Amino acid sequence: MSLERLLLPVYVPRWMHRAVLGFKRAFIPQARINESFQVTPGFTQQFSQFKEQSCLDGRFEPKQTDWFPHLNDDTSETGFDPHYVLHTSWAARVLAKTKPKVHVSFGDSLYFVGIASAFTSVTFCDIRKSGLPFRDIEEHSVDLTSLPAAWTGTLQSISCMHVLEHIGLGRYGDTLDASGDRKAAAELARVLAPGGQLLMVVPLEDPPRVCFNAHRLYSYSQVMGLFPDLSLLEFTLITNEGQFFENADPGLLHGRKYSCGCFRFAK
């Protein structure tokens, strides 16, 4: 057992606290700091203060070897990813409003799937298994470009959010196919029941482009062209700056870089 450990028991009585710390500072060298961490003088001062407080608290022994600095989180506002926080919130609100008996999610964010399953029955379909532990979520492994024939016209409420732009680019082990997104869109339209709703979310940019093997960035007209037999009920636009435009004018997309389009279609 090290001398430092002997001088730092789990609990130090308050009356001994300052004397012990003074002795340590004078005679025991500090532990070697992980040189990969770039810390500030303010961080080390906070650590010293917290270490003294921990001696009185008696539960934990803070060590420099356990440092895990997060130096960019002290902000005036809570930051978030506008695309993924807002589009999943938009979709959850649609489901809360429309109240489908069963909602089928094709490859959506698991945050959305897990939360939506708290208030509606959810079937999750993806090329890979999710491993979600909730018993009220049914799962199917499917290829979105070739869905089961028996599903034709049977699904009343479906979503495919931030998925279509990846299909055919090989990123997730799928087959390279420049028309993969078109095939998947046609399949989604096929399985949607008459009167049913499709929640479609994709990244938008003007002009459109593809970033192999990450994703496609669509124009508004390209997305509309993927679903010629469906009717658009709602278009909501989310910007990188976190702006949220419900029932947005597509003209807002002119010259805009990497935004998020939320389309609600009906059959």
Quaternary structure state of the chains depicted? single chain
| Elements, N to C (H/E) | HHHHEHEEEHEEEHEEE
Provide the CATH top-level class of the largest domain.
Alpha Beta
- Enumerate the strands of the largest sheet in spatial order, edge to edge or round the barrel: 3-2-1-4-5-10-8-9
CATH architecture of the largest domain: 3-Layer(aba) Sandwich
Q: Total helix count?
A: 7
CATH topology of the largest domain: Rossmann fold
Share of β-strand residues: 15-25%
Q: Distance between the terminal alpha carbons, to the nearest Å?
A: 72 Å
How many whole angstroms does the radius of gyration measure?
27 Å
Which structural class do the helices and strands define?
alpha/beta
Q: Mean of the pLDDT scores?
A: 89
Quick overview:
Helices cover 29% and strands 22% of the residues.
Fill in the keyword field for this structure:
267 residues, alpha/beta, Rossmann fold, eight-stranded mixed sheet, 7 helices, 10 strands
